[in-house]
Write a structure and sequence with these properties.
single chain; alpha/beta; Leucine Aminopeptidase, subunit E, domain 1; six-stranded mixed β-sheet; 5 helices; 6 strands; about 40% helix
């Protein structure tokens, strides 16, 4: 099942929330900063351990940590691509960010997961195209998964919410 809602992803009660992280995993602006602030120091500590072990997180990849003080059990950190006109594999990398997040969710027996709108903020991925890739990637994954039961796209702004709502009502 796929749902869309407008709101603050840090307040969503699910097994895992996805963080639109940067490659350093050490927090940043937008949803990344909000998750780190709301979740507290436990998330940053877990990210530091991952960074020390493997050197961060590559674009399109994902890692999992505790959710700290958040209502979720886990935070899955994924790095979406910066939009460079569409000729640098951005679409494939964005799809990989969703697919790798869902693979990690399955490996950790996550039944419910919430995604933000990956790469559509400061990374400037066109919102309509990013939403289409997100919905297609998640739908394809769910058709073959028995573990993940519900995916919620949590849109901070009304523009993304309207885009996802229109896509999902088709």
């Amino acid at each position: 099942m796929i749902e869309v809602m407008q709101g603050d992803i840090t307040k969503i009660q699910v097994d895992a929330i996805v963080n639109a992280a940067n490659t350093s995993l050490l927090g940043g602006g937008g949803v990344d900063g909000a998750i780190h602030r709301a979740g507290g120091s436990a998330i940053l500590e877990a990210c530091r351990k991952i960074r020390d072990k493997q050197g961060g997180c590559k674009i399109g990849e994902a890692v999992i940590t505790t959710a700290g003080k958040l209502p979720a059990k886990f935070v899955i950190h994924t790095v979406g691509p910066v939009w460079n006109g569409g000729n640098s594999n951005e679409r494939l990398l964005l799809a990989s960010a969703y697919q790798n997040s869902l693979k990690l969710a399955t490996e950790n027996e996550v039944r419910t997961i919430a995604f933000p709108n990956i790469s559509t903020g400061i990374y400037k991925f066109p919102k309509h195209e990013a939403a289409r890739i997100a919905v297609e990637s998640v739908s394809e994954f769910l058709s073959a998964s028995e573990t993940v039961e519900k995916v919620i796209f949590v849109c901070f702004d009304s523009e993304n919410y309207d885009i996802y709502r229109a896509l999902l009502s088709r």
